[in-house]
Amino acid sequence: MMQATLRSVVRFDGIGLHTGADASIEIRPAAPDFGIRFLLGGAHIPATVEYVVETSRATVLGIGERSVSTVEHVLSALVGLGVTNAELAVSGPEVPIVDGSAKAFADAIFAVGVETQPRPCAMLELREPFEIREDDRALILLPSDRLRVRFLADFPPPIGVQYFDRVIDPDVYRAEVAPARTFGYLDEIEALRARGLARGGNIENALVFSPEGAMQTLRWPDEVVRHKVLDLLGDLALLGFGLRCDVFAVKSGHGLHARAMLALRSRHLAALSARSA
């Protein structure tokens, strides 16, 4: 797999899902080996798991007093389209939520084009199964020469149990994952807002479920699990290395994903250090 970047800059303006504050992001091409980094007030925050400072309802990256929330959707779009080098200049406390999915990010990246760079991508090659569990949640990674995601989601009614299974490539990502929107229950909105979350959420940028069902037209009957896959791919980006494996996810979320990426990244960096010693 070769490194790649965007051919041109793309920009988005809007509001943050959780803060409700004005937010913008400019996704810029970057040189080989730059990686994916967020630019906040003149300081770079690498999009790697060491910089995760919060995983409650969204993945938040931070360094010192600077932080940026809800990074998973834009990271998902970059990973889904094979972009390995990009500078993400953010204004505001969050990445704009847009319509609650990664569709706008993925469509814009596809429209300007992805440029292959003359440098191989640093890869993490799994040589044995990796597993992490927490109560009834699990994330299992098996060695493979492709990226396949199987996700079992289980939520209270009216969502229920949903299952997704696909080999992920840019075409599949754009068509079957990127448009899936973030979601929540009508009766939990006030509780979330009391915790300082979901202040920018509305029916234009999130699926809302009442006891009777979705309050908007679903893009797929299983849109919820597709969004969980979208989030998972964004969190996998925090490994900081290319990854080809079979992923089995059972009811997993940002916190479990971050723990898994930290363990894998730490193990891989230690192995690289031992080889070079």
Give the count of helical stretches.
6
Average pLDDT: 94
Could you state the order of secondary-structure elements as H and E?
A: EEEEEEEEHEHEEEEEEHEHEEHEEH
Annotated CATH homologous superfamily: lpxc deacetylase, domain 1
Regions with little confidence, pLDDT below 50 for 5+ residues:
none
Radius of gyration: 18 Å
Shape: globular
CATH architecture, please?
Answer: 2-Layer Sandwich
Number of strands: 20
Indicate the CATH topology: Ribosomal Protein S5, domain 2
Strand content range: 35-45%
Roughly how much helix do the residues carry, as a percent range? 25-40%
Total individual domains: 1
End-to-end separation in angstroms reads 26 Å
Sheet of most strands: 5 strands, mixed
Supply the helix-strand structural class.
alpha+beta
Assign the CATH class: Alpha Beta
Q: Output the strand order for the largest sheet.
A: 2-3-9-4-5
Textual characterization of the structure:
With 277 residues, the protein is of the alpha+beta class. The chain has a single domain, classed as Ribosomal Protein S5, domain 2 (2-Layer Sandwich), CATH 3.30.230. 25% of the residues lie in helices and 35% in strands. It contains 6 helices and 20 strands. It has helices at 72-80, 103-112, 170-177, 189-194, 223-236, 254-276, and strands at 2-6, 10-15, 22-29, 36-40, 43-46, 52-54, 60-63, 66-68, 86-91, 114-120, 123-124, 130-134, 137-143, 148-155, 160-167, 183-185, 207-210, 213-214, 242-243, 245-250. The strands form 6 sheets. Strands 2-3-9-4-5 form a 5-stranded mixed β-sheet, with helices on one face. It has a 5-stranded mixed β-sheet with strand order 12-13-20-14-15, covered by helices on one side. Strand 12 (130-134) and strand 13 (137-143) form a beta hairpin. Helix 5 runs parallel beside helix 6. The two termini are 26 Å apart.
